[in-house]
Amino acid sequence: MRKETREYNFDWMLWNSFTAAAQLKKGTEKEYRSMLKYIPYFRGVVESILDAGEPGQKFLDICSKYMENVITAKEKGKKTAITTFCFSPAIFYAMDIIPVCLEVISVMMTFTYKRGTAEFLDYCNEVGYTETSCSSQRGTIGAYLAGIGADIDMIVTDTPGVCDTNANAFAFASAYLDKPFFQLDMPPDLTGERSNEYHREDYRALIKFLEEQTGKKLDPEKLRANLRELAKQDEIIAELEDLARMVPNPLPVSYNLMVYASRFLFAGMPECTGVLESMLEVARENAAKNISGLSGGVEKLRAFFCYIDHYAQNLQLWKMLDINGICYQGNILSRSWAHNAPHVTEYNKEEVAYTIDTTDIDSLIDSLAMINSRMPMIKSIRGPYDAPNMWLEDTLGLAKLYNADLIVYNGTPGCRNTWGMVKLFARDTEKAGFPTYIMYADAFDARVQSWEATEERFMEFLKVRRLV
Ligand code: SF4
Question: In 162-301, which ranges are continuous DSSP H helix?
Fold first, then answer.
């Protein structure tokens, strides 16, 4: 790692970037436009998000707040926990712990910096990670391993049995940094009393661990308030998802990203609700006027992303879709498995959904255990890809419901669990009538395949399959 990179704490720098970006539109339009030329590498992100109007502004505000929470945790007397995107942060907020979600912070850096996270990715390899371990954790954990981030008190994850590269990344960091470690396990069966019971008991062990680390008992009232907020968020997401079924889709392409990122950052907190409410307002207005969310106003294709997105600098994936009139019909990161989600009610999938019950402490913990076990990736990719309620069934159900014309896979070379089955998976989705494109890029590391090459190949696929 370069000496210069070690000069400042990386999370402090990121907080500064997002805080400055969040202020840009608070002056006049002229001031805003004049400022853009001074941030040549960051302007793409700023423009893409702020041009989304109030939801974009609110989204930048909460990104800045999240990073501020991380860097000021110690002076506010709070504990910090490194965690993962498929772990609901609601429990951390209920216990006054500041979550540090590695994958989301990697995305923030990949979007923002021309250099991406390359130095942190490589630093992990220098200290012992394999090169094929997932880049979404390495992009951020490298900085913490190098000692250029906020103090971390514990590491908490929930991916054993689902994604071993993810689970190993956290286990390695715990050993290397000598920090207390807790992992929830995921049995291969999603449903059934044995699995449910396992999730609930495992979750109680997690709470015991968090109580030991913080020296405080879980406050049921705080948890209840968070889960009520989470239920409100689920309702908004259900309505957004319903609106996305319309033709034309009234949601701008960036909304899907803002839905899942807001949940990963602040599930159960008013910050997340604020962004969602603001998106819902715009989406409802567009729907009432029968307007497409695309900036060109003409919907040509509808794409469903069956795994994660490509986080090339400046949100280039979303720009490409928008310019080409391709609606973003969601991915598995943005889907909620709440009892009222459209895909749950449409397909009578109540058995796999969760319901929030705030009656007493037991029902609160059970609800949270169920929410957590239905988070992205650990919901759909824990068992064989073509087993009931797993990746193939979820993808086909969602692609049909949202009227997709094509399905796109993107991941990282570290996704051994999805790479191991993606060809079979694509064969099945093709058989079901969906042209399926497999991107050979790394969502977080442009050195694997440049964005330009990724875009060219994607466009070639559309032409070869006569979709454009
Ligand atoms: S499934 Fe892929 S993207 Fe998700 S954590 Fe595992 S390796 Fe990373």
Answer: 164-177, 193-214, 220-243, 255-266, 270-288
